[in-house]
Specification:
144 residues; mainly alpha; 7 helices; 69% helix
């Protein structure tokens, strides 16, 4: 309710720039603070951060005008098809996100690290990246 409701459910009521700003506002930054304060662990927060980002994306797209929605879904779908062989307009699944960061962390830490530490690092990466956006897309819509 903080952001209101879509006044035009069919067409959408936010232009792409406003939608992008809304999306930035909705990213789950508070979850990083919970981790920093030691309230919850990375393992507890990573799935919440993933789900919160998915919800933010879905809500922002529902508010966006149709052409912006189509662009966002086509962009995510193409990236999914390119990287995973399947067109998915909603972006990466939890398993795909986990696999992506597991590869990165394993490459960075090497094979000698203990499995618990690798898991912690993967979860931390998911948590951190849940609050980052694509700078190229930001530049297109925000001009930053």
């Amino acid at each position: 309710r903080s952001f209101g409701t879509n006044r035009n459910k069919l067409w959408g009521d936010f232009d792409p720039e406003t939608t992008r700003k809304l999306y930035h506002t909705l990213l789950p930054r508070a979850l990083i603070a919970l981790n920093d304060l030691g309230v919850m662990t990375e393992q507890e927060l990573a799935p919440l951060a993933y789900e919160a980002r998915c919800a933010a994306k879905k809500y922002a797209r529902e508010r966006c005008v149709v052409p912006g929605r189509i662009f966002a879904m086509a962009y995510d779908g193409f990236r999914s098809w390119r990287d995973h062989g399947r067109f998915n307009p909603e972006g990466m699944t939890w398993d795909q996100v986990w696999d992506k960061y597991e590869r990165q962390i394993t490459e960075e830490l090497g094979d000698d690290d203990d499995a618990d530490e690798v898991t912690r690092q993967i979860c931390l990466r998911i948590l951190e990246r849940s609050c980052r956006t694509n700078p190229k897309v930001d530049k297109i819509f925000l001009g930053d």
